[in-house]
Write a structure and sequence with these properties.
Radius of gyration: 41 Å
Number of strands: 18
Strand order of the largest sheet: 2-4-5-6-8-10-11-12-13-14
Shape: elongated
Structural class: alpha/beta
Strand content: 15-25%
Largest sheet: 10 strands, mixed
Length: 333
């Protein structure tokens, strides 16, 4: 196993050049940049003598755990991409850390960043995830980064939604290529909250094939300068913003007209409840009143009465007849 130790540092060419004029302890105390990338390192030993370390390069190694960095309170840049790290941990003492590179590891959850109050860049692209899984984000870490994080790289992580990232209102650049993003409405909702977003790269996502994809995102991101590697012309942006405003105003006007019509004509549906008989005038001297909600109606019939014993003809007599629902009638003698 190759461990990063003080002894290993002493063997480096940089120290060999300075050893004539100063001791190892003096050299380590003054050390600000340490580069041990691609050295087959598997573990980090006690480096507490390097208290002034600000930049540490440990990418392209075989490190499986972030450890023994509690001494590095002055560290601002940490490069640990392309290792075997599965968990983000032991970073709480790195108060000044502003750039963290962890791409190409085996991380499944972005967590353990609660105390990094100075972090401006986070790179977690291309994690070696189990088949069918996606990279997820701990709400506590996202919340703690909401006021500082400016650049985020989450490309190639099988991500299908970004609503959990909405609190990151200070983002100026988002790299989220080669994921599974497909809901353009969700993207619009989140991006509208990121008022400082200037660069957005969503190449190789299903959403890129949605109708009006580019137009809709340009209008959602008011100051976006670059979308998927293509510059945004200010004249084109203003045209799209005006077009959307006009479209929204027309929709609002149409909705208002619909509401007004509904108020003016509240009964627009023909409700048919039970059998009803329409008014009718029949030359055969029959007159009907419509029944109400299935109640029997009343039919007025006119019959000529034969002349009496004196030979006089009497006037027509109107005899009411009650009619049932099934058309049966009773005649009153």
């Amino acid at each position: 196993m190759v461990r990063l130790t003080v002894h290993l540092i002493s063997k480096s060419s940089n120290y060999s050049k300075a050893c004539r004029s100063e001791s190892l302890q003096q050299y380590l105390k003054k050390l600000t940049h340490l580069n041990f990338s691609n050295k087959s390192i598997e573990d980090i030993d006690d480096l507490s003598m390097c208290r002034n370390l600000t930049v540490l390069y440990l990418y392209d190694n075989q490190i499986s755990q972030i450890c023994n960095l509690g001494f590095a309170s002055n560290l601002t840049h940490l490069y640990m991409q392309n290792n075997n790290i599965s968990c983000i941990e032991n970073l709480s003492s790195l108060y000044k850390l502003s750039k963290l590179f962890l791409g190409g590891n085996s991380i499944t959850v972005v967590e353990g960043l609660d105390e990094l109050k100075s972090l401006k860049e986070l790179h977690v692209e291309g994690q070696k995830l189990p088949r069918g899984e996606k990279l997820v984000f701990d709400p506590r870490s996202i919340s703690s980064l909401s006021e500082t994080l400016c650049i985020l790289n989450i490309s190639k992580n099988n991500i299908d939604e970004i609503c959990d990232l909405a609190p990151l209102r200070k983002l100026t650049r988002l790299y989220a290529t080669d994921n599974q993003l497909q809901d353009i409405k969700e993207l619009e909702t989140v991006f509208c909250q990121w008022s400082q977003l200037r660069l957005l790269d969503l190449n190789s996502n299903p959403v890129c094939h949605k109708p009006k994809y580019r137009d809709r995102l340009i209008t959602a991101c008011k100051i976006l300068e670059d979308l998927d590697g293509k510059q945004i012309n200010e004249l084109s942006r203003q045209f799209l913003i005006n077009w959307k405003a006009s479209k929204d105003a027309k929709k609002k006007l149409d909705d208002g007209k619909d509401i007004k019509e509904q108020i003016s004509n509240p009964l627009t549906t023909d409700f048919r409840v039970g059998p009803q008989q329409p008014f009718a005038h029949d030359r055969s001297s029959s007159l009907s009143k419509p029944s109400e909600y299935g109640k029997p109606g009343i039919t007025f019939r006119t019959d000529q009465v034969q002349g009496d014993s004196r030979g006089r003809r009497s006037r027509g007599i109107y005899i009411p007849v009650r009619t049932g629902r099934l058309g049966k009638s009773e005649t009153t003698d």
